[in-house]
Amino acid sequence: MNKKILISLSVIGIVAAIAIGGTIAYFSDTETSTGNTFSTGTIDIAIDSQNPWTGHWDIADMKPCETGYINFEITNPGNSPVNIWKQITNVTTDDGDITEPECVYGGGKWDGVSQACDIDGVGWHYTPQHNLDDYIYYDLSVEVPMTNNSNDWHQVIYKDTDTTHQILSHLGGAKIFLGMIPARGSMKVTQSYHLAPEVLNWAQADNMRFDIVITGEQLQGKVTLENKAGDPDWEIKHDNTSGTLTYNMTGSTFDYTFSATGLKSSTKYRLIYYTDPWTGDNPGALIASFTTDGSGNIVSTTGSVDLGMDLPHSNDQNYPEGAKIWLVTANDYNGGTEATGPMTDWNPADYLFDTGLITYDDTDI
User: Fold this and answer.
1) CA-based torsion, 155, 160, 163, 165: positive or negative
2) Structure pTM?
């Protein structure tokens, strides 16, 4: 047969094969998800129902040992929980009107005719002093109302009656973490400014001015645990004993990194989800087990646990606002066994407690 004819027949055969292959059908099914949306949450706080905040306080005629209060309520009308910080900034002081006792105390001479202080003269010079912020003891506490718990979540951050009271000037404009406000929730903030008893005549008619800055931020999967005094005040001790928990706010497993310092040395601890009421296993959960080193530290440790529930759980009296995370000694949790269980003893001086509630969405349930 002619070679050209053979080639032509081969080409025809290939084309026919392709044509036959192209007509082969398979069973199939197609499903379509329609109307999908992606929307963002809202972060927009109000204070004393004001947004923007225009609150202003004048604490006048203060004398040694007296206390002035600045109280307000922060509301979160949005659909996302927020963490709240507070700052005292732009602190300034001045001498105000100089009275006779203040003039004499400062080394000046009082002119009874002009009713004014002679600040300079032969053998005398008035030296002003008006550092009121070094003599004001500062008190700060917060309270978050809970829907299903008769005991609102609260903590004392500073207490002016303690021997370790906070002096206003020592704050240095630092951001103070107040806690978490749940979606559509609120927080009551109580502050007191206590003029120290050791203030003398140099402070008469002096003035101190300052700004209060409140910041709300979305939860970012991080919470600090502090050593607290326990009931009834839950006062933070500020004793350099603390822990830091970072975690994923949503997922099939609760993934975490935890570290702590200042604890009992060479001691077993349990990181737990505590659900009110006592004994905390309603249902509660064991998140992780640790043993401190010889210096009482838990080095940064990463892990993952399948909780099988959202935080908070619907049986928790703190539902739906948020969940409490505690670090407790192993001997006080389920009798020392390494399993989820109740609190079996109460020694809060050895524990670390949440400084703000958290939320976690388990995508597997």
Assistant:
1) positive
2) 0.87
